[in-house]
């Protein structure tokens, strides 16, 4: 256990060391978060109406509803891009083959590569929410933080499965990744990011229920906007852990198969 944690920390420290050489990026992202929060606030003021507010699952304003959808989608982007980026970086630098023939197991390689990007994404989202609460009245004070962290953990596990499946495709086919764009496209329509899934046709609502993002957003909005306790969120949490229990083993199996295939064909380090 100690060796596993040490290996994962080394992955995290490597990525943090690289990121620290680009310190201005942190400042730029903080300013960008302010502009993003302001954009959603003024769009919300433009489209808010009593009818719209009544159609939102937790009530409130469209600003609060859409901001949570937008920043939470950042986690899905991180999950889908992180593994691809780490894979391409390790392949281009020539370290991928060395990593995969050492004592570093596939789960540790995958989890360690994702650790820093997910932490960085969490900090970026925190800046978004702080700007929104401080300047635009986002109701951060009503959040149930125990529920928020539980939902976040379950969501990251489920999203990571999608990200690993996406990187398995990249490892085998090298260029382009339609799997990633397909997931993002479906989520943009039926994930409930910018509008409630209740306004969709019945058949699209069925598809929405097959998407972990739908459950994650429903639960996160309830936890932040309504202060919902864990006990009342057991249904979406159970769904997210079920997605994780299915997607993580499936994705690791697919990734291991992709590695074996590329080793057999001699294309592991080819881009």
Brief write-up:
Helices cover 79% and strands 0% of the residues. With 271 residues, the chain is an all-alpha fold.
What does this structure look like?
With 271 residues, the protein is mostly helical. It is built from eleven helices and no strands. Helix 1 (2-20) crosses helix 6 and helix 4 (62-93) runs parallel beside helix 7. The protein is globular.
Secondary structure blueprint with pairings:
Blueprint: H1 2-20, H2 23-47, H3 50-55, H4 62-93, H5 96-101, H6 106-136, H7 145-173, H8 178-190, H9 202-208, H10 212-225, H11 234-265
- Termini, distance in Å? 34 Å
Q: How many E-type strands?
A: 0
What is the number of helical segments per DSSP (H or I, 4+ residues)?
11
The level of helicity is over 70%
Which outline best applies? globular
Major sheet: size, sense and barrel closure? Answer: none
Mean pLDDT: 79
Radius of gyration: 20 Å
Question: Approximately how much beta-strand content do the residues carry?
Answer: under 5%
Indicate the structural class. Answer: mainly alpha
Q: What's the SSE pattern?
A: HHHHHHHHHHH
Low-confidence stretches: none
């Amino acid at each position: 256990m100690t060796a596993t944690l040490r290996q994962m920390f080394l992955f995290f420290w490597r990525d943090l060391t690289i990121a620290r050489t680009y310190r201005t990026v942190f400042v730029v992202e903080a300013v960008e978060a302010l502009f993003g929060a302001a954009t959603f606030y003024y769009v919300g003021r433009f489209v808010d109406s009593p009818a719209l507010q009544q159609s939102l699952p937790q009530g409130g304003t469209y600003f609060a509803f859409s901001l949570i959808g937008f920043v939470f989608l950042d986690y899905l982007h991180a999950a889908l891009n992180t593994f691809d980026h780490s894979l391409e970086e390790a392949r281009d630098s020539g370290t991928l083959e060395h990593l995969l023939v050492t004592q570093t197991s596939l789960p540790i390689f995958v989890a360690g590569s994702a650790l820093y990007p997910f932490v960085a994404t969490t900090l970026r989202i925190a800046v978004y929410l702080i700007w929104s609460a401080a300047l635009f009245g986002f109701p951060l004070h009503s959040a149930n933080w125990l529920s928020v962290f539980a939902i976040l953990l379950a969501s990251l596990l489920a999203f990571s499965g999608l990200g690993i499946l996406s990187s398995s495709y990249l490892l085998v086919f090298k260029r382009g990744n339609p799997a990633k764009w397909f997931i993002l496209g479906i989520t943009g329509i039926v994930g409930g990011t910018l509008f409630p899934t209740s306004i969709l046709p019945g058949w699209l609502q069925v598809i929405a229920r097959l998407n972990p993002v739908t459950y994650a957003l429903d639960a996160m909005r309830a936890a932040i906007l309504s202060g919902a306790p864990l006990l009342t969120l057991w249904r979406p949490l159970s769904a997210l852990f079920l997605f994780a229990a299915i997607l993580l083993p499936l994705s690791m199996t697919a990734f291991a198969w992709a590695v074996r295939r590329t080793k057999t064909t001699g294309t592991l380090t080819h881009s």
